[in-house]
Amino acid sequence: MKFVKIRENSWTHSKFPTAAAIPGRGAMITRRAFLKTTGAGCAALSFFPAMSMGDDDFPEDIQKYVREARYYEKLPAKKIRCLLCPRECVIDDRERGYCGVRENRGGIYYTLVYARPCTYHVDPIEKKPLFHFYPGSQAFSIATAGCNVNCKFCQNWEISQVRPEQIRSIYMPPAEVAGLAHQSECVSIAYTYSEPTVFFEFMEDTALAGREKNIKSVVITAGYISEKTDQRLGYDILAMICATGVLYACGVTWLKILTGMTWSKTRMAGMYPFLIGDALKIAAAALIAKALRPILRATRNPK
Ligand code: SF4
Known about the structure:
The protein is α+β, with helices and mostly antiparallel strands. The protein has helices spanning 31-47, 49-53, 157-160, 174-183, 200-212, 229-259, 263-270, 275-300; strands spanning 3-7, 10-13, 67-68, 72-74, 80-82, 90-91, 102-105, 108-111, 119-124, 138-143, 188-191, 216-219. A hairpin with a 5-residue loop joins β4 (72-74) and β5. It starts with a strand and ends with a helix.
């Protein structure tokens, strides 16, 4: 693997210098860059025709980039609802979500950018910009195509606002990313440039592979991501237990003041007889909240 120095303390792979890696490129695009970018997009489209044609299975040559998404729910008529970010896109069969890198195929939702970075550099950690996290160290920085937001000021729009087939990418599975980071003497792997939320599965597996080599993870993100759905039930139950505890504390204290009983007698009279009933109420409320959540989501996002 050969790296080319493109500016002070920044390298890119010689074979795939991306527009975002070219020094001096800001939000403006030159005619030459436009022709190059659109030419590469057309070439990629012809290389991956079946992705836009909607075959039942992904073609063999791109199957290595495809993984079933981790956070979505199935809906009737082969629709799905993506649960990865707060957009919660409802997606028909053969369609993609807002970010353009996740596709519904026959009711199964797939990420199309697993192990598919479109750019990677060795950057100083201060460029992330982190000034108090291993200062002076290098971060192995990767990104894939796609983003779940559309900021007008995005300096990396050439990779964030395109679909995977519109940009040149390479196959780099998580273990290889971790290996290259280790080889480049990087203290961390940075998920950056575009929005790491949209390549969550790739990021998660790469972070785990990096941890095995004692390499840290740095996520540069807008934070537009959903809580894990299976954690929400736990949060609901915890919140209700805390609220019930506060009610018991106030109620038992007030009962003791009114009656002048000892603490143990007050608890016997005003707390213990109600514990089982309240536990059952918490369980019932949590189950009702779980059942109602999809209905509330559908009201917010009827598409
Ligand atoms: S991650 Fe993409 S597909 Fe999923 S909800 Fe967000 S924008 Fe939609």
